[in-house]
Amino acid sequence: MKLGWKDIDPFVKNPNPKARAVLIYGPDAGLMRERSDSIGKSVCKDLNDPFNVSTFSAETLLDDKARLADEALAMSMMGGARLIRIEGASDKITTLMKDYLASPSQENLLLVEAGELGTKSSLRALFEKSDNAAALPCYLDDDRAVASLAKQILGDAGYKIQPDALNWLSTNIAGDRMRVRNEIDKLITYMGHDEKTIQTQDVLAICGEAGAQSFDDLIYAIGGGKTEVALFTYNKLLAEGVFVITILRTLQNHFRRLHYTKCLIGEGMDASSAMKKLQPPIFFKNEAGFKSQLSKWSDKRLLLILERLADVEAQMKQTGTPTETLGSHVVLSLSAQA
């Protein structure tokens, strides 16, 4: 069964019992592990239980093809259902999984974890088309999703966050779910128990490394034609573990916001009023830079840039594509155009 984005959270919280095997895949390794653990605990509360949880790599299956059936069909010594986790899966195990799904265990649960799988992936197609299996994608959170997650975590911990602070935070820590959670945990530790309202200076103080020379710097260096600064910031983001696809989607979002604002100006609205229509709002320290870029880019050029970025994203999803090199070409090209 193929899970749409509206189906994912309900499934993670309460897995469909018809799915005897679940494929969890995508570029966000932190989110994949989070969802895998949540689904796994529906079978076994202690994921370190040596009797009821077995974890092994896909390469192990290829070396010992009988291992899958031996583990997945085995009964628990302690009673109850068992959890079997396969890590590092790819299309190489599609045939093995197809054979298993022909007659899977009706008690034990099989979790298969993979990286990003394209639409032509045979393993992904198998799980999406099977009635007794499910395919669950884990894509990188965008700014809005990060903002929602941050508000939820901070709220559960008893904190409130000011809109400007939340806007900056969500823009600058977007990416891998584990990285996002780590940054929010750092912020909570920094705030302590006395002050319960988080201000902009708080997120700048504790999450500065993730943002002071990060997405905002990259966006405004590119828009300002500062090629060396843009390339330096791009490489710094990569060194911090940010995915190239996250950087690309941040650029797409920025140029989409520029184009939307230009359209409002074209309808007769002044730049300041048009900028106020954006959600989430522009961080106040970036307002001058954003307004400056509005004067540099025409509607037609912005559309061409968005088309180019969409093409690059499609290329990055192809197996074997040198994504970091492709990303650096985008950074150099856009900053040169500015």
Summarize the structure.
This protein is 57% helix and 9% strand. By secondary structure, it is α/β, with parallel strands linked by helices.
Which structural traits does this protein have?
Rossmann fold; 338 residues; Helicase, Ruva Protein, domain 3; Zinc Finger, Delta Prime, domain 3; 5-stranded parallel beta sheet; alpha/beta; globular; 3 domains
Could you describe the 3D structure shown?
There is one protein chain. Helix 7 (143-156) packs across helix 9 (177-191) and helix 14 runs antiparallel to helix 17 (299-316). The protein has a five-stranded parallel β-sheet with strand order 2-3-4-1-5, with helices on both faces. The protein is 57% helix and 9% strand. With 338 residues, the chain is an alpha/beta fold. It folds into three domains: 5-137, P-loop containing nucleotide triphosphate hydrolases (Rossmann fold, 3-Layer(aba) Sandwich), CATH 3.40.50; 141-207, Helicase, Ruva Protein, domain 3 (Orthogonal Bundle); 213-338, Zinc Finger, Delta Prime, domain 3 (Up-down Bundle). The chain has 18 helices and seven strands. The mean pLDDT is 86.
